[in-house]
Amino acid sequence: MKVKLFEDLGFKRQKCEKCGKYFWSIEEKDICDDCDKYSFIGKKVTKKSFDYDEMVKEFIKFFEEHGHRHIKRAPVVARRWRDDILLTIASIAVFQPWVTKGLIKPKANPLVIAQPCIRLNDIDNVGRTGRHLTCFTMGGHHAFNTPENYIYWQDETVELCYKFFKRLGIDEKKIIFVESWWEGGGNAGPCFEVLTHGVELATLVFMQYEKIENDYKEIPLKIVDTGYGIERFVWISQGKETIYDAIFGNIVEKLKKEVGVEEIERGILKNITELSGIMDISDAKDLRELRKKVAEKVGMDVEELTRLLEPYENIYAIADHTRALAFMLGDGIVPSNVQEGYLVRMLIRKTLRHMDKLNLSLPITEIVRMQLNSLKSLYPELLEMEDYIMDVLQIEERRYRETLKRGEGIVRRLLKKKDISLDDLIELYDSHGLPVEIAKEILNKYGKDIDIPDNFYTLIAERHEHKKIEKKKEKLPEVDVQETELLFYKYPNDKEFEAEILKIVDNYVILDRTLFYPEGGGQKADKGKIIKGDKEYEVIDVKKENNIVYHKLKSVEGLKEGDKVKGVIDFERRLTLMRHHTATHIVNAACQRVLGKHVYQAGSDVDVDKARLDITHYKRISKEELKEIEKLANEIVLGNYKVESVFMDRNEAEEKFGFRIYQGGVVPGDVLRIVMIKNDELIDVQACGGTHCQNTGEVGMIKIIKTERIQDGVERLIYVSGLRALEYANTLEDILDKSSKILRCSYEDLPKSLEKIFEENKELNKKLEEMREKLAELKKYELLDKFEKIGDYEVLIECVDAEPKDLLSLADNLAIGNRIVILTNNKGFILCKRGEKVDVSMNELIKAIAKGGGKEHLAQEDVREN
């Protein structure tokens, strides 16, 4: 790649003797910096030392001065706006796929962003190599070039990077540009990796292809995609032995003091970091090799080196992981067993395991609180979530401790079935959250051993990061017609309309315009009829695909393309759906206010008889909270707030309302329909395509029927509104009326009467049990004379008119010494019991009599089942 700056400043293109890559530098070099060791440790390579906050601000300021508009960061959970990845792994991920595919315009062009990212692909290396992080900030300056609007390309990108390095005071002779290739998120292009003193600080990607399987297709946009490692810039400005000491210095020192670790010679840490910089650390073998090389270099036994290093590695990992948790929980991720919720739980448990290894008494909540305080000037929104974060961490730690207590029983039960493999250990962690190190200790206790790869948690993370939830969707026939005019948005209260049939495929009729709402956004489709002349056709379902609405009819006989028809919707059904859908927005808003900002819609279903809303929440909703949610929801109804819908540019909507508008999931397109509930204040705002009331007063009373936990981290609320709420209340009243008549008391006295009956019943059962015992005692004496001598044993075979429970009690009284008791009743129940001096198996005996089974001393069978 030819670049004007290289020609102007005398950069030479050279080939690395070690890796074979081409690179550009002013100095003559045999190898590229990517193959060289770090040479900045202990040196000053920038004009001043920067902390994290200062470097973020310096980066943004520089690019603002060079014509870039700063845009706010996105959440670290990418599933807010896309469905192909869970976490935000790069600054360009914020613009995929909508901007990069040219579907919408960028919020600014060119722009600069400092985007916190989470990557778990190197999680097992964190703390061990001196340089790996799970949580890092990618500074990006991006330009989106189109044929009509050229911003800048390679020359300007390289020049901006060079100037930023120079602004920090980095020696121009030490700046290296390595030619490479980049792929990610379905896009690809050539790139420069920019290094100094052996460390890569930035990647300059010239994105111009879409990767489809193994082929590359040129895209209409030419995108400048840059990634600057903010933490690495901080590191080289300070010259510390590890990146953790540079970024988390105060936390590292606090943890060291709490643990009382043995001080290690800083040269050892320097050697680890330098050597790891030129090694591709990807598995256990690489880490062992790194340790071995460091031990040889410092003249120390590997085991002794490991003993000294492990406390530092745990401290460094804790410092990194707790910052990642501050962002993940602060952006509202709720721990669960699926998707990003699983990943945050894994990170919490891994952090707790590191803390246990250190016997650290400092709670995880305090360490995360330190992280929040260190981030508050740049990310004040995280501090707003502090109560939620602290509550979640306490609950998750309690669950983790409970898992450890159950661990031995879990492993022991599995061992009874088979030998445990690595897949079993992964499943133990997936299903029970049992840390692999604990599982190994338990296995060792039972004389079993298994090799655990050092990248175990990386394997776990990859398994869940790439797991997709497949949504089944009915395949509609393809048609080549104009898009349907959606009348239900323009005239939501109209009941009938006239239209022309454009296409008939199978039992589907496609009209040029329609009032029928197609199923979507959790709302069921409208029903009704299409009329031609004096013949009516029932509409049983409505779907939409590619902005074309498909009306499914019971029969299409007599209809043809070009016919003029009238459509009539079942408006009572529509009205109920509108009320329930608006109620869903209201209940969601109430949940967020009562439970916290972490609440996010995980699903909904708007039907005629009732509606449901699934929300992310980390514990069961209490009765008090449920009452408060219901009360607030009805206050919103009584407030008669306006329900407005407007079509907005996607960027404008995100800029104004944030990513919370995507409550119902990912919404495609550059124009969004935004539904707002507001008066003097904004109660709720969502990107939503459903039908709604014009004000909250039209919803009528909202009554929450029940809540249930449908999966870990997701609570379901089921509710009714309007006339359905009245019907539900009437049903409850009927039940109360019938109950009060049976008990001959008023509604108010029902609890007291039921309690009295319960207590009386308990007393009667107690007396009945006493009578049974006395009857069994009497029966025992009656049966004592009926034992017969058979061989060495006394045997009783008798049919007794009693329940199985009474037969068992009777057998307990009779089966002593060398006696065998076989009892049956007239309902087909049989049991065999032996005394303590009998060595005949009752299990085998009952198998001979019937098909039952049991234990050696007692067996029983209900022959009515055979």
What would you say the CATH architecture of the largest domain is?
Answer: 2-Layer Sandwich
* Gap from first CA to last CA: 82 Å
- What's the number of domains? 5
Query: What name does the CATH topology of the largest domain carry?
Result: BirA Bifunctional Protein, domain 2
The first-level CATH class name of the largest domain:
Alpha Beta
- Provide the residue-averaged pLDDT: 87
- Total E-strand runs: 30
Shape: globular
The percent range for strand residues is 15-25%
| Unreliable sequence segments | none
Pfam family, one: tRNA-synt_2c
Cofactor: Zn(2+)
Protein name: Alanine--tRNA ligase
EC number: 6.1.1.7
Written overview of the protein:
The chain has 866 residues and is an alpha+beta fold. The protein folds into 5 domains: 4-247, Bira Bifunctional Protein, Domain 2 (BirA Bifunctional Protein, domain 2, 2-Layer Sandwich), CATH 3.30.930.10; 272-465, no CATH class; 485-569, Elongation Factor Tu (Ef-tu), domain 3, CATH 2.40.30.130; 575-730, 2-Layer Sandwich (Threonyl-tRNA Synthetase, Chain A, domain 2); 776-865, Diaminopimelate Epimerase, Chain A, domain 1. The chain is built from 24 helices and 30 strands. A 9-stranded mixed sheet has the order 1-2-6-7-8-9-5-4-3.
Present the secondary structure layout.
Elements: H1 4-9, E1 12-15, E2 22-25, H2 52-65, E3 69-70, E4 111-118, E5 135-145, H3 154-167, E6 175-184, E7 187-196, E8 199-212, E9 215-229, H4 230-238, H5 243-247, H6 249-259, H7 266-277, H8 284-298, H9 302-330, H10 339-357, H11 364-375, H12 380-383, H13 386-417, H14 422-432, H15 436-445, H16 456-465, E10 485-486, H17 487-490, E11 496-505, E12 508-511, E13 513-514, E14 528-532, E15 535-545, E16 548-553, E17 564-569, H18 571-595, E18 601-606, E19 611-616, H19 623-638, E20 642-649, H20 650-657, E21 671-678, E22 682-687, E23 702-711, E24 714-721, H21 723-743, H22 750-783, E25 788-790, E26 793-799, H23 804-814, E27 819-824, E28 829-834, H24 842-849, E29 853-854, E30 858-862
Parallel strand pairs: 3-4, 10-13, 26-27
Antiparallel strand pairs: 1-2, 2-6, 4-5, 5-9, 6-7, 7-8, 8-9, 11-12, 11-17, 12-16, 14-15, 14-17, 15-16, 18-19, 19-24, 20-21, 21-22, 23-24, 25-26, 27-28, 28-30, 29-30
Helix pairs in contact: 2-4, 6-9, 7-8, 9-10, 9-11, 10-13, 10-16, 11-13, 13-15, 18-19, 22-23
Pfam families: tRNA-synt_2c, tRNA_SAD
Domain Alanyl-transfer RNA synthetases family profile: 50-731
GO cellular component, one term: cytoplasm
